[in-house]
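Need residues for this backbone.
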């Protein structure tokens, strides 16, 4: 932008802030820092899964089908398998497939936790699929996923 495109506004402390002039809304490209990163998503999945074959049972992912507030989408994950001192969940992650930074949360557990469940609020950039992965102490990996429709963008705010 050229200098003439800016309007100077003075703030309370006497400093100046340059603001762009109002223009007709046009569709612009998403900045690279806010665009989905499929390579990082695939890498995070591969790093967590390793050589294990993810099992689609034993992990419950609960989130709304429609996110009316994409800045704070409630997510609840529970390992439904019976757990003990010898069989427990070591780690659980949440991945948002279309977010600029796909790894949303990482939880670690010990045998003394007793249960493996976690709740969080995610910020989602757009409609997408949220994935939950859990690694058990015996090396198995549990997986669950659910699609969610986002009413408005949460990551670009």
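Answer:
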């Amino acid at each position: 932008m050229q200098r003439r495109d800016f309007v100077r506004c003075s703030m309370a402390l006497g400093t100046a802030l340059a603001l762009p002039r109002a223009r007709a809304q046009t569709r612009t490209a998403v900045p690279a820092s806010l665009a989905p990163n499929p390579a990082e998503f695939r890498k995070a999945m591969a790093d967590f899964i390793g050589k294990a074959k993810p099992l689609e049972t034993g992990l419950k992912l609960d989130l709304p089908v429609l996110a009316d507030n994409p800045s704070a989408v409630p997510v609840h994950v529970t390992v439904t398998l019976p757990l003990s001192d010898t069989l427990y969940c070591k780690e659980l992650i949440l991945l948002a497939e279309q977010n600029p930074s796909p790894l949303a949360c990482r939880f670690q557990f010990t045998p003394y936790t007793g249960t493996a469940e976690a709740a969080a609020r995610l910020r989602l950039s757009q409609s997408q699929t949220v994935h939950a992965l859990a690694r058990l102490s015996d090396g198995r990996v549990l997986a669950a996923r659910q699609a969610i429709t986002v009413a408005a963008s949460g990551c670009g705010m």
